[in-house]
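Quick one, T. Sequence first:
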Amino acid sequence: MSLCYSQLTLSDRRRLHQLVERKVPVGDIARQLGRHRSTIYRELKRNTFHDAEFPEYSGYYGGIANDISKERRRRLRKLSRHPQLRELVIEQLKALWSPEQIAGRLLADGVSALRVCTETIYRFIYGKEDYPLQLYQHLPEGRRKRRPRRSRKPRDGSIPLDCRISQRPDFIADRSRFGHWEGDLLIFRRDLGEANVTSLVERKSRYTVMIKNGSRHSRPLIDKIVDAFSPLPAFARQSFTFDRGTEFRGFKALEDGLGARSWFCDPNSPWQKGAVENTNKRIRRFVPSDTDLSAVSQQQLVALAHHMNSLPRKCLGYRTPAEVFMAHLRESS
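Structure tokens:
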């Protein structure tokens, strides 16, 4: 008998039907199916078909038992039993909260006695009964079906040894200190022009900054980062971690203009700047790769960054990046 319990499958129930028909004792059925006898007793009690009009047709049938079980589980789902909780989840999904943020905020607020886990929300979104609501389109990647994540491969290039990520101090890697950023470039369809967006994320607070660029030339792009970060105190802009794209080759201007160090990931290792990679997926919900950036202003990108910085994050104890970022600025001022 397995030490890990799992629900009876349709094939299990068909086998159980055959054994019941042969009048095999419950103890022997349990051993043959690798289940506890209590599981078999409970299954027969709960999922036996009863027909009051034609009692001779009553009995345990594998397919019917499976349907009865599915229907009972559907009725018992929390989001079916609690309409107010269901409406709250739908409302927050439409406000572009992720299932993880919804579940975490319910727990963190402690206002409602009802709780719902992330997986329950995903099953609600992709379940057969509620799929017609098309709530999947409000998820970060808007996928019609759940599938494994894939990572974009970064470009390679030669980077000075003292700027490679292997030389970066441990206190940056473990997020124990404030003021260390990750940066990346969001590219759009070539036929829509050369415009792109620099995304920058502070590692400890996950605070996001977005900057529109007219091209991928390194020096203008770096100069815009310098202009955007100059108003911040020095402790809030100590270093930046990039991939090996040519657009960041002018990184020395960051040291000259901001006094900030630059670090570069290893080849084909986007996970080494995971904060900004994760943020890029969130940004793509609002500005997908087929967006015409000529119709998007810097002010609109600032408003989008403000929206993202106002969403609660699990990694921050369901505080928002803006709350954490401002707290660090006040503590060090």
